[in-house]
Amino acid sequence: MPKDVDHAGWFTHTPTPGRRGNAVVVGHLDSKSGLAAFYGLGSLRAGDRIVVERGGVRPRCSP
Length: 63
What we know:
Elements: E1 9-10, E2 25-26, E3 30-31, E4 34-35
Antiparallel strand pairs: 1-2, 3-4
């Protein structure tokens, strides 16, 4: 899990985001200090777009 609750991390035994295959991204919902990176996941609906940024760059992904 990422130490900074406002950021998500990538599970290294899966393809990196933007590569062919299923990437596994991990993060916190909340913390002792409040809401965290994945707090809003419950409001997502089928078809919603999720954007992953790595180091300020958005990898190219197919929808």
